[in-house]
Amino acid sequence: MGTREIHHCSICGTCYQVQLHHVAFRSRAPLLKNIRLNFKYLCNKHHQGKNGPHKNRYVDLTYKLELQDKLFELFSKDFYSEKEIQELLNTTSSTAKKICKKLRSYKDGYSSKELVKRLMGDRIYTQEELEEVEYEDPWEGVLK
Ligand SMILES: [Zn+2]
Ligand SMILES: [Zn+2]
């Protein structure tokens, strides 16, 4: 029998009813579905509750921007090869192939900017989007 990994909610630390959340939703960013960086463990309240990412757009966008930042940190050079992408994302060669398939191949490899955009579901999230949500958000300030 394998050992079962115990996960804690990344917000409150409980290990009770912890669920795996995909920061970039699987429907929108299927390439990230098995990538650990995209995983966030959350208890039921912090996952499905009113201040969880599925109900609160501000929280959702905050997590997505954090993920995007991590990806840009990970891919800090301008260009990467498919092999490097596979290693950095700690993924399989078939996933790496899928990721690179629609990316333009330059002389020095794949552009990190285009790569991150593709991973995030063919879009780049911005701080401005978050500020717009924050402005409309009745819970403004609660999360800080
Ligand atoms: Zn929690
Ligand atoms: Zn979720």
TrEMBL record:
Q: Which UniProt keywords apply?
A: Endonuclease, Hydrolase, Nuclease
Name the source's superkingdom. Bacteria
Q: What is this protein called?
A: HNH endonuclease
Organism equals Clostridium moutaii
UniProt GO molecular function: endonuclease activity
Does this UniProt record's set of keywords contain Hydrolase? yes
